[in-house]
Fold this sequence. Notes:
Elements: H1 2-6, H2 9-17, H3 30-45, E1 59-65, E2 71-77, H4 84-92, H5 96-101, H6 106-123, E3 167-170, E4 173-176, H7 178-194, E5 202-206, H8 213-223, E6 227-232, H9 237-250, E7 256-261, H10 267-280, E8 287-290, H11 306-332, E9 349-350, H12 359-368, E10 375-376, H13 377-386
Parallel strand pairs: 5-6, 5-8, 6-7, 9-10
Antiparallel strand pairs: 1-2, 3-4
Amino acid sequence: MRLWSEADARTWLELRCCHPRSACGFSLPPYGFGQQLIDNCRREVLDQPPLYKDVTFPTAPHTEVTAKGDIVYTEIVRKNVRKAEAYIEEVASGDTITARQIFKSEEQKNCIEALYEGVVRSLRKRPESCPPPGAPRQRRSSSQFLRPEVSSITSITVDKVPLLHLKRKVGTNQEYSSNLTGVYLDILHEIATSGTTFKDKNALLTGVGKGSIGVEILKGLLSGGAHVVITTSRYSRATVEYYQGIFQRFGSKGSALTVVPFNQGSKQDVEALVDYIYSFLGLDLDYILPFAAVPENGREINGLDDKSELAHRIMLVNLLRLLGAVKIKKNSESWGEYLCLAGAVIGCTRGIGLMDAANMVAHDIEIESHGVRTFSAKEMAFRCLSHRT
């Protein structure tokens, strides 16, 4: 799969120059295997865009205590979920907890609706300025994120909410939408089955450390042919060589990777980064995926300190400043109306820095809590990348 994504005319020429009889250890005759590989690359790959397609096995948490009393945490292949298509079907089925949330008596529903309407009436100053409940919402005619219709593959039961679902804004609330969720799950299934491309796309990623969701997203974008700019607060030879290794393994036809030093707590760095991308590299960003985060566990509102201020500056203030700087560039190029914010609520993700403490108990959470689902960094990256299509 990786060879096909990387294949171009030069690759085909090198394959022609290589001795195909060296392909030993395969069921086909050595020469036949080499010639078949060359023919496949020439016929089906050269004119096709690179594809991101996750072909790894979905994993599950596993914790055991050894005879010596050591607690060992590992990732094992998830039972009955052998590929990405099966993973989509599993999360589409929902679970007992999400199912239980939508079972309310009519009396409870009427009471909640009455309370909500009372609050809305008390806060509304100009009722005529607000559309009535249930009225259709206007959409931008210039939206570039609309997808063609796809055939429904995944089925959604009326008594359950899928683990992966979409909500739409209704008033000031976000409400579950079965229609949007059905389209979303079909698109996920399409990506899992046929793959997707990021050819001619430019992305900015922050917070791309080892073992993070960001680094898995980086691998997917490079596999799909994107030009990716990543930031690091630890710019060194070892860091650059680490990302170079990722590019050498996952880079595909037309992809590129740029690594820049960056302090997201600095206003000067934020402005310089955007200027570097648009003025020096000459790129127009299609995606911004901000994963830079600083933990501030254990701090209450009466005990905020300098680390809390730094965390809020990195994860909130300067993130908005970054988006604002990009907006200025977009407006100068008459692209302001094409900005779109896509927010995702990320579930409990195993194996990443901020949630390492939960790894040991993830196995018991899934087995004993009857329906709780944790996710690997690769699974979460697949979900985030699906929002880029």
